[in-house]
Prior knowledge:
Helix content is 44%, strand content 17%. The protein is α/β, with parallel strands linked by helices. The chain folds into 4 domains: 2-123, 2-Layer Sandwich (Beta-Lactamase); 138-303, 2-Layer Sandwich (Alpha-Beta Plaits); 314-491, TIM Barrel (Alpha-Beta Barrel), CATH 3.20.20; 504-708, Hypothetical protein af1432. A hairpin with a 5-residue loop joins β12 (314-320) and β13 (326-333). The longest helix is centred in the C-terminal third of the chain and has 21 residues, at 688-708. It is extended, with a radius of gyration of 34 Å.
Amino acid sequence: MIIKKSKKPSAEPERLIKNIADLFDADLVIVRNDGCEILFMNSTASKRADPEQQSAASCKSGYSSLFPDLCESCRRKSGSEGGTAAFDIKDKDGKVFSVIRNSIEWLDGKPATAFILRDVDEERSAKLKMYNLAYIDQLTGTPNRQKLKEDFEAAVKDIKNDRACGIVAILDLDNFKAINDNYGHNTGDEMLRRITAYLVGDSAFKGHLYRLGGDEFVLFFKEAPSRFEDQTAFRTYYEELLKKALLTYTMPNIEDKCTISMGVASYPAQGDSLSELLRKADIALYRAKNQGRNNVVFFEDKYDASKKFKDVYINMQPIMLKNGNTYGYELVDSDRSGKDDDDAFSLSEIDRTLDALGLNDIKDNNKYFISFTKQLLNKAVLKNLPRNKFVIQINASDKCTDEKMQLYKQLCSSGYSLALANVDSGNLNQELLDLVEYCKFEPGGISGSEQMNLIAANPTKTFIAADVSTNEEFETARRRGFTLFQGYFFNQQVVTKKEKDIEPLKANYFRLLQLTSTDNYVDFNEISEVISSDVALSYKLLRLLNSAAVGLRNRVSSILVALTFLGEENLKQWISVLALRGVSNEKPLELVRMSLIRARFGEILAHSFKPPKDARHVFMAGLLSLLHVALDKTKEEMLDEIAVADKIRDSLLGDDGPYSEILKFFENYEHSNWAEITRFSEKNGISCASINHAYIKAVEWCNGLMSAY
């Protein structure tokens, strides 16, 4: 132990410092700034220094000689805020030490500088080794599949918020198998290393290349959408970039040569999940092989030979309880022809559905009804498909063979609930009925009296009335004993007379909608006055601002300041949810959900319409399209109380407004009128992939918004 000081302190502080400092698993050195006079070294630092270094009065001539860069690093860090700095240095043997430099007051009351140096070389080497084992391909030195997965997941938030676009490209080596077979695996490995070294040596590909395995690699690029004027510019950019890899790769003393074939999928247009993008890139890759190799092919819908239909859409139709609460949703897609074809591609296949709608991330208690396919018995699906969330729906019209019955029983034994759908008097199978938990009747399939008798005879089953489109149909089904109701009966109400005025608290919600539904700038002062007059609204706003959903560091208590913190866009979203909930609190919450999905769905597609539409107007038209139902008013009465833009008003009230066709598009989509959706998409030149992508984005946005607000 070495202690040097200009003024002798009492023995007790000295012993205390010694005892504490000797517990450090690090070097502790305290110096005086002027001349770097050593005041103190703990036992760890003393053992590292030789006798001559220990006896030196100055750090410059003693201890720092162990670390060639210590003095220089100290001088560079001397201007750090508060006299504190952290940096790394190496000793004479090349070992890495982390250094913490701090200004302190020494025992004599005068300023000094404390250095804590810790040997982190072994720790960092171990961490680097573990990282390399987990994320780096040992043959080529490139990141592996796991690293690709994590890098893509890190980008997902930007992708889903339309803040990122790019490509996932699969490439493999043409003629690589011949090299392995003719010259051995060592030569093949060397070819992989050389090609990899060439690609990562090009700045265009460095940091973007991953090895999947064998001779398959992936290039993953992410860009800001603002970089490209349109899809043509996007594709041209990546075509030119990727063509740089299309060379003939050779090695000395061997005759065989390698080229590269590449398949490309773009996001978000063709998906925002890695599994879906890799699947589509793989389809494009094999097309590149079939076209002669050594080329780049971008995925197009027409290449997907596994699809039976040209256009594929998916939506979620609500299944309601008697009280109007949502029980669950049936996932309905356009790619089921009703035929018993278990090998046909369908968005009902659960791996695709989970990827598309992100249902694994939904934390609600809703049930999701999906169509049965043999793919559901895949071990990976059975392992990952939540048993408490999904109900497997069997089509009663399909012939129930002994083989299929065994498959259904296998799903039951795996813990899944089954539903029997499309039941009529001609296809009711008692053995199947005994197996399932749910039973669904379509209109006209079986008489009312037969329905009542069947429901009464099976009290342990849950019966669903399908395609309930009006309140009258709902009441009829309820009287017959149904407990679940699928359809949009809650938004079919037609009001012919003016109802009572809006209640005082509802009036505040209504006023907020008025203040945010015009083209004018948001008046924060006026909105602040409305919210301040309502204790419940004030509480909800302040709770939102102080929640993790917004993540402010400092809590707020002023309503006006709170609104300013929230910002105009977030404020409009919050008001959309709160107002819709507030004015429709006696109506099913599904009305709020449908309104929000319509608004966001149209907003995403607005610029794709012919001609392009005002996204703000389309959003507001969708948001208000069901509000009259929530208010028990006619559309005219509702719009007399909200100063919306004329284009929105005309579209809500008639069939020839600028957005009337879009409102009809929403309705057709919700009711799965796929032929009309295809007609609409062709008229506007919008691909089915873009429509499907926009719907999925809208659902994700709605789920996040309703959970946050």
